[in-house]
Every structure is written in C-alpha cells, then in structure tokens.
Amino acid sequence: MTDASTPENPQPQGTGQEAPSMRVLGQYVKDLSFENPGHGPVQAQPNIDLGIDVGATPHADGNGLFEVSLKLSAKATSEQTVLFLCELEYAGLFQLQTVQQNQIEPMLLIECPRLLFPFARRIIAEITREGGFPPLLIDPVDFVQLYQAQYQRAAEQSAQNGTGQA
After folding, report:
1. Structure letter (DSSP) for residue 132
2. Which of 4, 15, 82, 89 counts the highest number of beta carbons within 10 A?
C-alpha cells in the first residue's frame, strides 16, 4: 500500500531563498571541576552564588560552524565555610546556514545556549549530588535578558570610552 498524500510541510518552490537553519553537530563537557573543601553538617540553608557566561567562537573549518560554550559556576557557603565549588563548561558545535549577518550573534548567544542549558543543568545537579549535597537545581535562565544586559553593558562601556578619549 502506498501513501499518495502530500507532505505536511511542503517546501516552497521557486523562492530562491532557503530558510535559515541551525544544526547541532555535537555537544560535550569541555571542563568540569567540583571541590568539596568544607563538607560537614550544615545547620542552615547555604548561600549559593551562581555565575553564568556564554561565549561563541567560529570554528577553524568555517562553513558556518561555531563552538558555543556555556559556563556555569556555583559556590555554596555557610557562615564562613565554603561547602563546595562547582564549575562546568559545556559546549556545542553548531552549524548555521543561510542566516542573515545581523542574526548570527543573537542566534549564537541566545538560541544555542538555550539548547545546551538543560544538559548542563543536569550535570550540575548530578555532580553536587555525587559530592554529598542535595542536587543543585538551577532555575531556567532567560538568555534573551542575559544577551540584552550584556549588549547594554557593552554599549555603555563604549560610550564611556568614547567620552573619556575626547
């Protein structure tokens, strides 16, 4: 029996432009560190300092390949004792095709980390649990807000540098 129906999402014919696309070619742990210097009985809820950084670099092969890295760091303290330090750099290799030049940076710094985050979050939870603590479940991150804040800081810094040189 054959299916003679048309596909659900037919490709537009004769437009001459392909739709922008992003492919995840691979994802991996680049660096992982967990230190447990002050493990002992914890009487109170620890303070946790969380850091998030996103970076993207073009791959040497070109062809629209980029390595996007998501760096997560967590430091848990109770009173004056450091309970644990955890740092993870989780990266992915992405290929962008037919993406307009002005959309490359937002795609690399918003959409790519959004795809990597659930995997990095799981690794942080597992490594803290394996270190003898309750799993550290990081709240979802708004990468759009993070990108806009970074963009605004860069604009303010360039404005300060421009006025300071005059």
Report:
1. T
2. 89
Q: Output the six-digit token pair for 128.
A: 């803290």
Question: Are the CB atoms for 100 and 9 separated by under 8 Å?
Answer: no
Instruction: Encode pLDDT of 35-86 as tens digits.
Output: 998 766 666 788 999 999 999 999 887 788 999 999 999 999 988 889 999 9
Query: The whole model's pTM is what?
Result: 0.79
Strand order, beta sheet including 81-97: 21-35, 81-97, 65-78, 47-58
**Per-residue pLDDT tens digits for 129-141:** 999 888 999 999 9
Helix axes 143-164, 112-130, angle to 10 degrees: 110
35 pairs with which residues across the strands?
Answer: 85
Amino acid symbol at 32: L
Write the CA distances from 78 to 38, 47, 134, integer angstroms.
9, 6, 14
Write b or e for each residue in 40-62: b if 16 or more Cβ atoms lie within 10 A of its Cβ, otherwise e: eeeeeebeeeeebebebeeeeee
Domains in the chain, ordered, with CATH?
21-134 (3.10.420.10)
Integer CA distances (angstroms), 152 to 47, 98, 127, 145, 164, in order: 28, 27, 34, 10, 18
